[in-house]
Design a protein that fits this description.
heterodimer, A: alpha/beta, 14 helices, 23 strands, 27% helix, 35% strand, globular, B: eight-stranded parallel β-sheet
Chain lengths: 471, 386
């Protein structure tokens, strides 16, 4: 890639991802957070009483819980909870077909490439604009299989029994301050139920966007894969660039019942003013398999540790995490594997790069409870530092209290090897290209797990981020 | 007793009383309760605590004096070199250990000051034996200084007369000046009901090197922190440790390899074997500061879980603030290798004997350079514990 093209890519960022549409909302709650606002959100959505009570209880939990005292707590202290909008309703209801979607929202998705994805016959598209899904299309074959793929609000309306049975069973509001906040003001997100034995062959995907300045986005996703079913869900995030800081505090709950397989893929590319504080957790029952594929490129601060609780015999979990921190960014990512049943196994691979004074931190937990016997775990973290101002931290914790448990952990931190660069340049590559090639190779294990168009987008994002990293 | 020393004790006592218990969220004290040190039972020892027997013999001090080294109790050092008092009694630990160190500074008795003069190379190891006698609290304190180009081996032994309910908190500091070479052996052989804390800070100047070996065997509760600072270019450090726990023993050990200057290297090998209901918590930090370019740091922690009920927690931490470095760590936990056991069985080993050989082999790399006198005492102890 020529220097000119790289420069163009960087300029391109604002127009491609950093555009801002004038706000056009049907309803926007006043700033701040109290019982009235939470009750209003619940009333606006026409929710059942139990959900309103759940929200109000979670609000009390949120107010009572202190801010986390670890990670970058001074930066978290800058979040002004009283100065955020907690709910915006962009237009009347959810649209079934592309033609029904209002023009200004269409423009946004046009820029994000949703129609292309549609044209490629990907299984279904739920796009979240501000706080509610406005566009929703599920292909006939999914409906025929009995697969439910809705935004969370519709899920609650149309399938209250399933929602009530599983909602908040994996991430209770008491889990942490931001999970409590989400529980109080959640809006939108995806609700997926895959019935027994159903195999969803195409990945399901949704885009999320934050548009209104100072609006928090609190989507709530719940995926239930019933016995022996399988599903792959993809989430991509792009937010416009604004001066004021935005808060994204999502909760994602996955439940893989006996023999089920869930793969959840995220590429997070929030603009560099977003606090991305997300609780993602999965339960893997007997013989189930859960995979998190989690890429973090954007945001100001991300704190996200996808975790899997292996609660059934023979459950398996893979976590693949990749993070790229540029100037002014902190990617505090990693994963947790909690082994609570025998014959379980897991792997955790983390790849991170920091440049331009950016900071990455791997934070992970491997916990083996006494009742979990014959457990195998391996953890591997590799970090690449592209310049001397950048920083990489690794905080893995392993608590091993089980019988016949094998745990291995390895981590390395280095710069790009001079020999590697020398070799590539001796074959005629320019330094810039050689560095980009090594970086792409470093992320290879991650990129090859992505569907093609995401892998292409990831490569493109990395090239964007790499601009000017040499000389 | 000099006025300065009384002033230091009183000031430390005041600060000790002010410093409350660690906050519940303290990462340092999350897994080990400071209450086990029963600090609330302490009373200010007054102006003239009676010094216990020195941790070394008069002959040893004489032998060293003729070789160019100075070995004194802290009381002697303070009266002979008033200028050194401040240095010996300066706090050397961080805020997490403040309360314990203030208790130590208010109540220490019979500490040690050892100075190896410039260029002096000691052939024989210097053995410091901190023997706790009777029940109650014990606060050893130790300062070892190697001047430029000096070489020495130091053994710091923590032993006991076997009295019940002993509590101790030892603080040690070692300074290796330019090109000095220090081998330091810390051994903890306290009774199974003792509560022990050990903190050591090692400061390495230009081109200095440290080989630090820890042997952790005794105590009901053991907590230790070893903070190695590679302060100047070319400093090197190697840390090795063996930890063998059984019964309901609880060990909580922290190490830091702190690279502050360019071209510094460090390595660490921490081997733990746990039987019965023993528990070990290991936290190892490698921190490479921005100016410490071209540095290399390695760390490995291996835990053998020899029973169903043993528990090992391990947290190897990396904090890397510059890019021209090589840095790796690895940690494992698991039972004895079943293939190795099978092989030994096929060669006629009884299962128990095979396991014993494998565990001894597992420890061997960390024990390799023990001075002869220590090895003769410790190897049978380890073998007996198996």
């Amino acid at each position: 890639m020529s220097a000119k093209e790289i420069a163009d890519l960087k300029d391109d960022y604002r127009t491609k991802y950093g555009f801002k549409d004038p706000e056009q909302c049907v309803f926007k709650a006043r700033k701040g957070l109290d019982r009235d606002i939470v009750s209003d959100i619940s009333r606006m959505k026409g929710e059942p009483e139990w959900m309103r009570d759940f929200r109000l209880k979670a609000l009390d939990t949120f107010l009572a819980k202190p801010m986390p005292q670890w990670g970058n707590c001074p930066a978290l202290g800058q979040i002004d909870f009283a100065n955020l909008y907690y709910y915006l309703k962009p237009s009347e209801g959810s649209a079934k077909s592309w033609d029904d979607v209002p023009e200004y929202i269409k423009n946004t998705f046009e820029k994000l490439g949703i129609p292309e994805a549609e044209r490629k016959f990907l299984a279904g598209v739920t796009a979240q604009y501000e706080s509610e899904a406005v566009y929703h299309h599920v292909q006939k074959q999914l409906t025929d299989q009995g697969v439910i793929f809705l935004d969370m609000d519709s899920g609650l309306r149309e399938h209250p029994d399933i929602v009530r049975r599983y909602f908040s069973t994996v991430v209770p509001p008491q889990d942490n301050k931001f999970a409590a906040l989400n529980s109080a003001v959640w809006s939108g997100g995806s609700f997926i139920y895959v019935p027994k034995g159903a195999k969803v062959t195409m990945p399901l995907q949704a885009y999320f966007r934050i548009n209104a300045e100072r609006s928090g986005q609190f989507e709530r996703t719940l995926i239930i894969a019933d016995e022996d079913s399988s599903v792959h869900y993809i989430e991509g995030c792009t937010a416009p660039v604004y001066a004021a800081d935005s808060l994204h505090a999502a909760v994602v709950e996955l439940i893989a019942l006996k023999g089920a397989h869930i793969r959840y893929t995220t590429i997070q590319n929030w603009s560099n003013n977003v606090y991305n504080l997300v609780t993602k957790r999965a339960q893997a029952h007997e013989g189930a398999f859960v995979e998190w594929v989690d890429g973090n490129i954007g945001s100001k601060i991300t704190m996200k540790f996808p975790s899997v609780y292996l609660v059934g015999r023979g459950a398996r979990a893979d976590i693949l995490s990749c993070a790229f921190a540029g100037k002014g960014q902190l990617q505090d990512t990693g994963g947790k594997l909690i082994f609570a049943a025998p014959n379980t196994s897991g792997t955790l691979i983390s790849k991170s790069i920091s440049k331009g004074g950016g900071r990455v931190a791997y934070r992970g937990l491997v916990k083996v409870y006494p009742q979990a016997k014959d457990v195998k775990v391996s953890v591997r973290c590799d970090a690449l530092l592209l310049d001397e101002q950048s920083r990489s931290d690794t905080y893995p914790t392993m608590e091993i209290d089980g019988e016949r448990v094998q745990v291995g952990h390895e981590a390395s931190v280095s710069k790009i090897g001079d020999e590697q660069l020398f070799y590539l340049m001796s074959r005629g590559l320019k330094e810039n290209d050689a560095v980009a090639m090594v970086v792409n190779g470093f992320f290879e294990a991650f990129a090859k797990e992505l569907p093609l168009e995401y892998a292409v987008e990831l490569n493109r994002l990395i090239q964007l981020e790499m601009e000017g990293s040499v000389g | 007793m000099s006025a300065e020393r009384i002033a230091v004790r009183s000031a430390a006592w005041e600060e000790f009383k002010r410093a409350g218990p660690p906050p519940p969220a303290s990462e340092t004290w999350r897994r080990t309760d400071l209450a086990a040190w029963r600090l609330e039972e302490l009373e200010f020892p007054g102006a003239s605590p009676i010094p216990p027997a020195a941790p070394f013999s008069a002959q040893e001090a004489q032998r060293l004096a003729s070789a160019g080294a100075e070995l004194l109790t802290l009381e002697e050092a303070a009266s002979r070199h008033p200028g050194l008092v401040a240095e010996c009694l300066a706090p050397c630990s961080g805020p997490d250990y403040r309360r314990l160190e203030m208790a130590n500074l208010a109540s220490w008795r019979g500490g040690v000051f050892l100075r190896i003069a410039r260029g002096v190379r000691l052939q024989e190891p210097v053995v410091l034996t901190f023997r706790q006698a009777g029940p109650g609290h014990f606060f050893p304190r130790c300062l070892v200084v190697l001047e430029e180009g000096a070489e020495a081996s130091v053994v710091e032994e923590h032993v006991s007369d076997g009295a019940k309910g002993q509590v101790s908190a030892a603080f040690s500091r070692a300074v290796a000046a330019q090109d000095a070479r220090l081998q330091y052996f810390y051994t903890q052989e306290l009774p199974k009901d003792a509560v022990h804390f050990f903190h050591q800070r090692a400061e390495l100047k230009r081109g200095a090197s440290l080989l630090h070996t820890g042997i952790l065997l005794g105590g009901a509760k053991h907590k230790s922190a070893l903070d190695v600072e590679l302060q100047e270019p070319g400093a090197r450090s190697e840390i090795r440790a063996v930890l063998l726990g059984s019964g309901r023993q609880h060990f909580d050990a922290y190490t830091a390899q702190h690279h502050c200057a360019p071209r510094t290297t460090s390595d660490l090998l921490y081997r733990t074997a746990l039987r019965e209901r023993a528990r070990s918590v290991y936290t190892g930090l490698i921190r490479i500061e921005g100016p410490a370019a071209e540095s290399e740091a390695y760390q490995s922690n291996h835990n053998l879980l020899l029973s169903e009920t043993a528990r090992a927690d391990t947290t190897p931490i990396l904090e890397i603030l510059t890019n021209a470095v090589r840095c790796k760590h690895g940690a494992t936990a698991g039972p004895l290798d079943s293939e190795a056991l099978f092989y030994l069985a096929s060669r006629g080993f009884e299962p128990k004997e095979a396991a014993r050989s494998l565990i001894l082999g597992f420890f061997e790399p960390a024990l390799a350079d023990l001075p002869k006198s220590s090895a003769e005492r410790l190897r049978p102890l380890i073998e007996a514990a198996l």
